[in-house]
Amino acid sequence: xxxxxxxxxxxxxxxxxxxxxxxxxxxxxxxxxxxxxxxxxxxxxxxxxxxxxxxxxxxxxxxxxxxxxxxxxxxxxxxxxxxxxxxxxxxxxxxxxxxxxxxxxxxxxxxxxxxxxxxxxxxxxxxxxxxxxxxxxxxxxxxxxxxxxxxxxxxxxxxxxxxxxxxxxxxxxxxxxxxxxxxxxxxxxxxxxxxxxxxxxxxxxxxxxxxxxxxxxxxxxxxxxxxxxxxxxxxxxxxxxxxxxxxxxxxxxxxxxxxxxxxxxxxxxxxxxxxxxxxxxxxxxxxxxxxxxxxxxxxxxxxxxxxxxxxxxxxxxxxxxxxxxxxxxxxxxxxxxxxxxxxxxxxxxxxxxxxxxxxxxxxxxxxxxxxxxxxxxxxxxxx
Length: 383
Fold this sequence. Notes:
mainly alpha; two-stranded antiparallel ribbon
């Protein structure tokens, strides 16, 4: 049986190792530029955690998480852009006091749906609420009609394509293909210098651990067990009296909120947001991050995100034409060779070695207590 505690020993060990890596090792060993790259990679880790809950535990494969990542990023970008578009900063425009791309498109006043983003409080609320509401509408329309599996994945992929086209087409309100750029300050604090990048990195790490703790809480709760049961035997859960659609909607909305927080942090760390992070390709890459790390492991998904993005940066710098082939080969390897990702490799090959070492030191004892604490499942059975 699963441990009733909120955090098992394996969870605590995973948190400690990750904290050592993100809080001590990487900041001490990397310069500011590389550390900011890690901060960019970690924004995708929020999406990966949401996909573990949604796809790994609930069996809901979404190929449109880039939509929610983009919604969170655009909400933050709208606030930052309005702050950067003061009358003094835009006095050379034909209409001072509005974002530059609106002035280029002959818009003379800020649209009504931009007005609430003058407030940081409303912006933070919107980052969480707007993607959640959008995910709720999609989930209610699909899950209430028992649309799932590959059909749901294709629909979310289509929504990602539609959202990209919409953002590009409404250039005067969204910045078009270039996105929202030239973001400078957050409540008067300049986010562009190196010291600001370091501060934002640690703020993001703190938010990431908050997301991990929330995901672990869901995993250990009754909700987490029901999600796993739905993945394995959906009809049996439905016949037991549970509303499968409502549980799926909740998991999908929670994953959307995680992705939106990652998008908002991406905007703060990188300094812009564009439709190139909303469409089909980035959404599929986010799924690959999760699959490489292990879609049943919260910590594995984070390490998978870091590994794939480090590989992407290294190959893009040295062999820019080969990265897409490498990404495709990596995805094929996940499907054919190690379907449980890095966490599965740890569980199947590395952890048994540690168990043997422990058993040798303590003759006659069972180091696992009769159960496996492998990070691949993080409490959920592997398929």
